[in-house]
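Summary of Year 1 activities. Much of the first year was spent building the evaluation harness for sequence design. The harness presents a backbone, in tokenized form, and records the residue chosen at every position. We chose the following record to illustrate the format because it has been used consistently in internal testing since the harness was completed.
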């Protein structure tokens, strides 16, 4: 998308959606702010950036370099992007809530989306443009670096611009992640009841949720402690440093049964014949979806274990890999060129904490493949997570694979990502 086209789309978002009196009437001040944040500032930033690009073009139609312009704006004028991206979690939640429970909002929104200016596109496609724009600029500057001879002044200017814009994008990502994690931790803390279990101080700036979900319990593999709770499933909260086992009382209430830090946890895969569902009905011998969690030192300082069953091989793989993640944090021994690569052909928005949001044309290194799912590392920034294999196509050209690895290494070296 050209800067002019991007600016035009931002103008539509501000003019038709944010400034719409009909839409404004359907929500309160907080909802309106969460939905549109500082998008007007983003539009002004884009106008200023485009004006400088146009000025450079007027000086010489054959533009030799724009790196100085990019660096200046990235370091001086693009700060509103950090605020906008940090608001993303509130924006998405507010939009989902309004669409689900506010009929007047839905009708007013549909009326605007049907106009000729919108081209039939939903408002969300305009709201996510700043996030998409920010993440694309480092790739643009990296391409300029690739195409420019290293002995030219323009090359060094492009490297400086690449570092400035990459620093901005990192601040955007960190801001969004920090806001989401902080709010999530406070919410989970309020929902947990420790009862007779020694309370665990959950909220910490260095702790975040990696995975959560309800799993059935197998009886054969359990100790006396766990047999007390047969016929019950358990709701697990897996953080980056601790596992908390709870019993779900309601959608917003969980009774803590036990917990252990991840360094005190071992995971073992089980064959179906080794366990039986808590309901008493044996699981098919062909089902490989069971595993055991051994807490060498639980909340009482004792060893405890629990055998669990999930619905599919991909679910088991995701839980097992997540539980063992702390033991494989670096993966420095992996040869990146030997890993399969995929290009994203359809964007994916993460629905679970262990999933990876992806944009069309992203390139991802595949670390694991399980039953319709990939776990991968996004080339441009090293972020990891799971995503459906249906939204990606494998890159089979060896030259392209090697070029992508070199680009990844160069990007991370130049930008300190």
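For this record, the design step produced the sequence shown next.
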């Amino acid at each position: 998308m050209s800067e002019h086209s991007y600016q035009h789309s931002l103008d539509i978002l501000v003019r038709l959606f944010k400034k719409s009196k009909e839409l404004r009437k359907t929500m309160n001040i907080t909802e309106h702010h969460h939905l549109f944040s500082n998008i007007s500032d983003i539009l002004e930033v884009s106008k200023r950036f485009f004006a400088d690009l146009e000025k450079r073009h007027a000086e010489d139609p054959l533009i030799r370099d724009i790196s100085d312009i990019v660096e200046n704006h990235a370091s001086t004028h693009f700060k509103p992007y950090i605020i906008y991206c940090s608001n993303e979690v509130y924006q998405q939640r507010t939009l989902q809530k309004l669409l689900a429970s506010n009929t007047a909002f839905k009708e007013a929104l549909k009326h605007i989306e049907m106009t000729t200016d919108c081209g039939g596109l939903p408002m969300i496609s305009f709201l996510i443009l700043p996030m998409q724009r920010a993440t694309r600029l480092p790739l643009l500057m990296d391409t300029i670096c690739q195409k420019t001879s290293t002995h030219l002044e323009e090359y060094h200017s492009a490297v400086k611009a690449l570092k400035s814009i990459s620093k901005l994008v990192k601040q955007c990502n960190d801001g969004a992640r920090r806001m989401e994690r902080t709010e999530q931790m406070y919410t989970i803390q309020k929902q947990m009841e420790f009862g007779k279990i020694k309370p665990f101080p959950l909220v910490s700036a260095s702790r975040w949720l990696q995975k959560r979900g309800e799993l059935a319990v197998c009886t054969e593999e359990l100790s006396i402690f766990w047999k007390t709770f047969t016929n019950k499933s358990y709701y697990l909260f897996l953080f980056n440093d601790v596992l908390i086992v709870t019993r779900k009382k309601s959608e917003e209430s969980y009774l803590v049964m036990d917990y252990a830090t991840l360094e005190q946890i071992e995971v073992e895969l089980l064959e179906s014949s080794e366990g039986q569902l808590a309901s008493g009905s044996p699981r098919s011998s062909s089902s490989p979806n069971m595993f055991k969690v051994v807490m060498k030192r639980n909340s009482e300082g004792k060893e405890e274990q629990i055998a669990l069953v999930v619905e599919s091989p991909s679910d088991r793989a995701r839980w097992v890999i997540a539980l063992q993640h702390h033991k494989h944090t670096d993966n420095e021994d992996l040869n990146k060129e030997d890993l399969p690569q995929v290009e994203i052909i359809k964007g994916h928005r993460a629905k679970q904490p262990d999933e990876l949001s992806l944009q069309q044309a992203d390139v991802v290194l595949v670390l694991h493949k399980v039953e319709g799912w990939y776990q991968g590392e996004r080339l441009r920034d090293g972020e990891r997570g799971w995503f459906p294999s249906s939204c990606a196509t494998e890159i089979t050209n060896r030259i392209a694979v090697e070029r992508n690895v070199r680009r990844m290494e160069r990007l991370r070296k130049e930008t300190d990502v």
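The two ends are 25 Å apart (CA to CA). Quantitative recovery figures across the full test set are reported in Table 2.
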